[in-house]
Design goal:
This protein is mainly beta. Helices cover 0% and strands 42% of the residues. The chain contains no helices and 7 strands. The strands form 2 sheets. It has a 4-stranded antiparallel sheet, with no helix packed on it. The chain has a 3-stranded antiparallel sheet with strand order 3-4-5, with no helix packed on it. The chain is elongated, with a radius of gyration of 20 Å.
């Protein structure tokens, strides 16, 4: 079984534990897209439904079919925002590690007695 390759996308490392996923979505409007972060398995799901039954095409060369694309996110990665510009959806991510999971320095020579 072949994995669905639509839509094509980039993943950009913006530094300081910040990233952007950029699916190319020419032909879609913002109201035809849904971005969801599922907390159970930390999965990011991008869905697009492009249906306009009243639109008649003489030629349809832009692939704007319905799709559902999933991205597995690391445990501490959170979606911080999304923006659609010129047919590219930018989904901004940031790795935010809770204080209790960050490494901590242990002083040597202290006794807990």
């Amino acid at each position: 079984m072949t994995e669905n390759q639509y839509p094509p996308y980039n993943i950009v490392d913006r530094g300081n534990e910040k990233y952007t996923i950029e699916p190319a979505l020419a032909g879609f409007d913002e109201n035809e897209l849904q971005v969801t972060q599922l907390p159970d398995n930390n999965e990011l799901v991008v869905e697009g439904k492009n249906e306009d039954p009243d639109k008649k095409y003489l030629h349809k060369g832009i692939a704007s079919r319905n799709f559902k694309r999933s991205f597995a996110l690391s445990q501490d990665v959170q979606v911080t925002g999304a923006l659609m510009v010129q047919g590219v959806l930018s989904i901004h991510l940031e790795r935010i590690v809770p204080e209790e999971r960050k490494p901590r320095k242990i002083d040597i020579g202290l006794n807990d007695k």
